[in-house]
Amino acid sequence: TLCDLNDELLPLSQAKVSVLDRGFLFGDGVYEAMPVYGRKLFRFDEHMARLSRSLAKLRIPNPLDRDAWLARVRRLVAAHPADDQVVYLQVTRGVAPRDHVMPPGLIPTVFMMSNAMKPVSAQQRHQGVACITARDFRWERGDIKSISLLGNVLARQLSADADAAETILLRDGAAGGPWLTEGSSCNVWLVHEGALLGPVMDEHVLEGIRVGLLRELCEGLNLPFNLRPLSESDLRTADEILLSSTGKEVLAVTRLDGEAVGHGALRGKPGPVYARLYEAYQQAKRE
Ligand code: PMP
């Protein structure tokens, strides 16, 4: 498959970056992963807005304007055989002699690749997935979509070791916690009394593009939607737990730390709010 390195389309195996690239030396860069359905970009402008915010927070100049990004992403999508894809793009600060201080005037390195979308399996759709919890030991700027993902990698491996699909993170903080932040690579949602609840999108949480989308879908479905601090006990007593991300879309969590999620007849099964949001999501994809 072809990728795009600094505006050059070439086979992935031939794309080469300097060892002095600050992405390699410091993890000094940001990324985006956006879905493509039927060769059409889904929520492109929202992903671009988040990219701009991440770059601004790191004082990396955005190397392209919105239309130039669109042209490049479209060219890459056209070069891939699959109709449904996930486009990965990253921008690093550029190449310079190693120094923690940000060198002025660098040319950012822009890399993009696309992969066929790997849909969630039918079994995971029907049965939901198992997750474990772990303490959120990452840094204080989870709001930046940084390529420095070591904390997320360590967190995810804990659930991989436990044969679970994701690690749900709980962060120490103010009394009444620990507090739900997110998954290692997704946002986390709770259902309590028919309402969809997410944590406040502060500096500990990456605001997924699906946060705004789920808000809109809830409006259309007349489901209450609320972002507020969510405690470990809110998590453990939820009627439903959901995950959201580019790759997972929305996905039901039916086991948490080995315990079935939910109550009554629906215990351990994907719930009604999940089912409605999943259907609404599929419709939004086709529009
Ligand atoms: N949080 C983290 C840490 C993530 O890596 C992701 C996936 N990019 C998300 C949340 C969900 O974001 P999105 O809905 O944009 O995929």
TrEMBL record:
One of its GO terms (molecular function) is transaminase activity. Keywords: Aminotransferase, Transferase. InterPro entries: Aminotrans_IV, Aminotransferase-like, BCAT-like_C, BCAT-like_N, Class-IV_PLP-Dep_Aminotrnsfr. It holds the Pfam family Aminotran_4. SUPFAM superfamilies: D-aminoacid aminotransferase-like PLP-dependent enzymes (SSF56752). The keyword Acyltransferase does not apply. CDD domains: D-AAT_like (cd01558). Belongs to the class-IV pyridoxal-phosphate-dependent aminotransferase family. This is D-amino acid aminotransferase. It comes from Ideonella paludis.
